Amino acid sequence: MSDPHDRQFLEITRRQVLEAGTIVAVSGMLPVAAQAQASSSQLAPENGVTVQVRFQINGQPSVLEIDARASLLDMLRERLGLVGAKKGCDHGQCGACTVHIDGRRVASCLTLAAKIDGRDVTTIEGVGSADTLHPMQQAFIDHDALQCGYCTPGQIMAAIACVKEGHASTPEEIREYMSGNICRCGAYVGIVAAIEQAAPQIERG
Amino acid sequence: MTQEQTADRPRVDAYEKVLGRALYAADQPIAGLLHGMTVPATIAKGRIEAIDLTAATNVRGVVRIFTHDDFSQIKTTPAARGAYGRPSKGYQPMTGPIVRHRGEPVALVVAETLEAAIEGAEAVKVRYAEEAFSAAMEDDRASREPEPESQLSSGDAETAFATASHRIDVEYLHPQQHHNPIELISTTAAFEDGELRIYEGTQAASAFAGGLAGMMGMDPTRLRGVSPYTGGGFGQKNGIQEQSVLVASAAILLRRPVKLVMPRGQLFHTASYRPRSRHRVRLGADEQGRLLAGLYETVQQNSRYDGFGCEHGANPPRMYGYGAWLGSDRIVRVDTQTPGHQRAPHEHPSSYATECAMDELAEAVGMDPVELRIANDAQRDPITGKPFSSRHLADCLRRGAELFDWNRRSREPGALVAENGDLIGLGVACGSYKGSMTPAVTTLRLFASGRCEIATSGHEMGQGIRSVIAAELIDVLGVDPEKLDIRIGDTGHAPQHVTAGSWGTGSAAPAARSAAVKLREELNLLTGSALSEEPIHLQLARTRRPVLEVTVNTIPLGKDAQVIEQLRRGIPSTTGPEYPEFMAFSWIAHFAEVHLEASTGRVRVKRVVSVADCGRVMNRRTAESQVRGGVIWGIGAALREVGETDPRFGGVLNNDLAEYVVPVNADIGAIDVDFIDQPDFKLNPSGVKGLGEVAMVGATAAVVNAVYNATGRRIRHLPIRIEDLL
Questions:
Q1: Residues B609 and B685 in one domain
Q2: Does residue B144 lie within any of the structural domains?
Q3: What is the distance between the alpha carbons of residues A33 and A19, in angstroms, rounded to a whole number?
């Protein structure tokens, strides 16, 4: 336990609940609970063995002292507030967490945060802007290459890399090299069309 | 004010989604958030004798570990997971020292960080007393429900079948399947503005406000369900999850916000899935292929305690003009987790079985399968005798056949061969899905600045409901899409219906439309003259009012004002397919072309053509996407997906996305979609039926029938794999 105060009030809470019964305690506790949350601190303390990593994130130099067990995905989402990369399997099977490290696509859920020391990380938040969409983002809109949108940041990061790798020359090649990113809504036809549209613009750029 | 047809606009939320700015349940920035991790049961049935928390408690960062001791007073109500609204059904884990299915949570570890929660959960030691169980309906310990779940009949089907010239008597097996939306089911409970907010990707936010409050004995007005974006639902997120009440209770007891993102391996056991089912189909026809009789018996594998129905028999008799029909659906209960609604829950498996049987009948009669279906077209429901509100299925078949170039098909299997030697097979199948609607409460505000806000009932899970709402507001008011603010999926803005069963568009479109029409009427009263072509907010500005607000309750056909109260309480209240004057369904015809590599048996679906009759098409672009998605689900069902339960242990063996194989990009070829696009104004003023589920219905049968046309082999189970074709 990192915070003795927590331990203390948890004990009290447990007793109260057991004595008063969960239902009564639960409904009566709501205002108190709301107050407690408001006063709690923003950043959770790291509680495992930590490592220091220095890296660039979307062009910004950063330093972080982070739990050695943490994945890059959990670092982005839970520490840096960059929630564009999504957790869909946590096993490198779905591609929803795809980001770029030094321009190459990786599954951030399978990458330890500790490994990005000295690296350059790009997430969907670093691609395009509200004023100027990246050609791949515009192409995804044009071809309705998304439905629920959950896999979309990963699809777009993979799609940009797919073009840069030189694997977007034919629809068949695009399908093969985009098969690490699952879209359960089934936007595959639109995704292939979007990459075909954006590829020449990215290659020229 | 005309009703524009086949509007083609970008999806209204596409912009936020491509920028990664759409916030899903697990993305909410919340101060002081704690992380939870559940400990799944490692037995299928039995009692928890002891839980040793010593090691887990010592993990640095662990704040609290909850067990059934902490949650014994949570009530299992008809809102609980698996009850499906039925009293005395359903099961909430961790309310007692028992285990009713493998993988259910037996402890919840809450920690300062996710890493600590995971380590803590792995350190929890549970001692069980195991009991005998069954995990398959073929097992001796399985319990068959004494009465059929549903029965439909018309005429003397047994006699008609016995005397028919051509008879088909076949059994098709449908496997267990899992939805696997890419968004993991996560629950975050946090205190904001004196209320407990539950952020969970859901199709049923009012279930949190109403249902969860009931389970916890809380005042429902202190709970708010929030799900502005759902990362795919497909029916898996249509109610309270096993984890929901646990996380909400933990947050209250800890006085801190708690988030649980349940790992996919656990979701295979805690979340719903499509259960296994067996389908015996008997079809009898005369010399000309006229359907004299259909007999259809199904059996579905449920859990011991769930209230999930079995309705396989509902749609097949409505597909064609059967002379007589007899159908029954039965349930067998085993000791596994609770199944539920998965996209086209019963319509997909029943269309698979009956539309494959139709293909077998076409062969027996010696008729083209398209011709056989058109010859048996019906404009009345053979069961009730009522007419259909609209039915353009024969047109779907004719147009699809033309787009697909169906005439190149040979009745002789294996006659078409590709340049590379692959066998080419062509198949057709049809589908239907009920036309349903649900009530909605809508508040629409137009500002003189041009801004337009709408708060209404409905959830966006990718089907494009925001785009449908936008389409009606643009159509009626001519508002700028960029200035639209659409607030849905949040009980803080409007009561939320369960958005499922393809009734989303048929409910949201009329809701938005009637609110927009009312707003025009009110503005008319203010201006005192007919509205001009000038932008509507400028006309409002001239009345010197900054804002005009209207509220509209929409009550679907055949219901009364009481349904609004039901909606507010989170109780589903839907209509259809039977209405006083007619039956309402959406219809579809699918054509599939498969290429089979003869040496390996590998099947590729090169092209699908699908033509749908879904009433008015609200947005051509999102509608096409929705149909393609449904077709891909059909392809996945035909060739890939099966949840494999180990009968020795009662758990799903392939509980991740590497082993439960869903279609990936390389599996999908061309999918061409077209629509009849004839509005059905009998059903609602927007003229829409539903699309999301009918899109899948029949797609699997089209692929299976194409495999037959390529190989001459009738494979009567799913998925069809290379070992079936070698």
A1: yes
A2: no
A3: 18
- Closest residue in chain A to residue B267, using alpha carbons only: A89
With CB atoms and an 8 Å threshold, state whether B255 touches A32.
yes
Any residues with CB less than 8 A from the CB of A175 and at least 6 apart, and which? A188, A192, B665, B666, B668
Q: What is the SS3 assignment for A164?
A: helix
The answer on B689 and B587 residing in a single domain is: yes
Inter-chain residue contact A186 with B628, CB threshold 8 Å: yes
- The answer for B 615-654 residues in CB contact with A (under 8 A) is 621-622, 624-626, 628-633
- Measure CA A200 to chain center: 28
pLDDT value at position A44? 66
Q: Is A146 on the interface with B (CB under 8 A)?
A: yes
How many residues does this entry show for chain B? 726
Q: Is the pLDDT of residue A7 over 50?
A: no
Read off the pLDDT of residues B198-253 as tens digits, 9 standing for 90 and up: 999 999 998 888 899 999 999 999 999 999 999 999 999 999 999 999 999 999 99
Cβ contact B17–A152 (<8 Å): yes
Name the pTM for this structure. Answer: 0.95
Query: Which residues 126-165 in chain B show a CB within 8 A of chain A?
Result: none
The residue count of chain A comes to 205
Residue A4 pLDDT: 37
Alpha helix (H) residue ranges in B94-149? 114-123
Predicted pLDDT at A41: 40
Answer whether B385's CB lies under 8 Å from B681's CB.
no
Residues B548 and B636 in one domain: no
What residue segments make up the domains of chain A, in order of their start? 4-39, 50-126, 135-204
**B532 shares a domain with B431:** no
Last residue of a domain, one of B568, B590, B610: B568
Residue whose C-alpha is closest to residue B92's, from B110, B108, B104:
B104
Q: For residues B415 and B445, state if they share a domain.
A: no
Q: Same domain, yes or no, for B450 and B429?
A: no
Q: Is some CB atom of chain B closer than 8 A to the CB atom of A63?
A: no
Of B116, B230, B233, the CB nearest to A48: B116
Calculate what percentage of chain B has a pLDDT beyond 70: 99
Which is the CATH superfamily of the domain at A50-126? Beta-grasp domain (3.10.20.30)
Q: Tell me, what amino acid is at A66?
A: I
In this structure, is residue B89 part of a structural domain?
yes
* Token duo for residue A80: 């840096």
Is B482 touching A (CB cutoff 8 A)? no
B139 within some domain: no
The tally of domains found in chain B comes to 3
Cα–Cα distance between B716 and B726 in angstroms, integer? Answer: 15
B115 vs A69: CB contact, 8 Å cut-off?
yes
B264/A70 touch (CB, cutoff 8 Å), yes or no: no
Report the chain A residue with the minimal C-alpha distance to residue B672: A189
Residues B497-528 have pLDDT tens digits of 999 999 999 999 999 999 999 999 999 999 99
Residue B623 lies in domain: 282-332+355-435+580-725
The average pLDDT across B300-323 equals 98
The CATH number for B501's domain is 3.30.365.10
- Alpha carbon distance B645, B642 (integer Å): 9
Chains A, B: CB contacts under 8 A, how many?
298
Q: Which are the contacts of B172, defined by CB distance < 8 A and separation ≥ 6?
A: B278, B279, B281, B352, B353, B356, B357, B716, B717
Mean predicted confidence (pLDDT) in B136-163: 96
Three-state SS for B18?
Answer: helix
Domain A135-204 in CATH: superfamily?
[2Fe-2S]-binding domain (1.10.150.120)
In angstroms, what CA-CA distances link B228 with A169, B487, B568, B624?
A: 38, 7, 18, 23
- Specify whether B424 is located in the same domain as B465: no
Name the DSSP class of B615: B
Q: Does this complex have an ipTM over 0.90?
A: yes
Predicted pLDDT of residue A29: 53
Indicate whether B306 belongs to any domain.
yes
